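Memo to structure team: turn this sequence into structure tokens by end of day. - J.P.
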Amino acid sequence: MSDETWLVVGLGNPGPTYAGHRHNIGYLVNDELATRMRGAWKRHKSGRSDTVEGRLTPGGPRVVLCRPSSYMNEVGGPVKAVASFFKIEPDHIIAVHDELDIAFDTMRLKLGGGDNGHNGLKSMRSSLGTGDFYRVRVGIGRPPGRQDVADFVLSNYSTAERKVLPFQVDTAADAIECLINEGLEKAQQRFNS
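Reply from structure team:
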């Protein structure tokens, strides 16, 4: 059994109003991972996140899934509280988030970097004191026409996108498993599209 622990943070906004929004892809991916771990979301002791603990593969590293219950621009505090509780350093944290600069149905994995205007990443960087954590950047594409970016990320997927979304979520969950079990380079080779 591996004794290292990973924290996978699904970024999103809490509540049913936001459930289907593009900004909530991190929640959707973490829900898929929770299903694979046969785990149920429980309120963490910090009171500001829901978590699932377990392993994605038998004998593999311990994994803590985190779904902050604060809004996107305030996720850093809850993430830091969970990371501190489980004694997880930033180099074992994976943030799963929406990415405007990547086309829908594609993704990129990387370590570190800026926040690129993403309020969830900005909040995490501020609270953790570093941006040196992994990112699974799930593409949502740019807004059509002159639609405001904020309106676009806080809107539901189109009908056509909703048909593809389960596959995108499944692939992102596979990428996280690969990253944890085989490392960034192999995960990038397989999943950076």
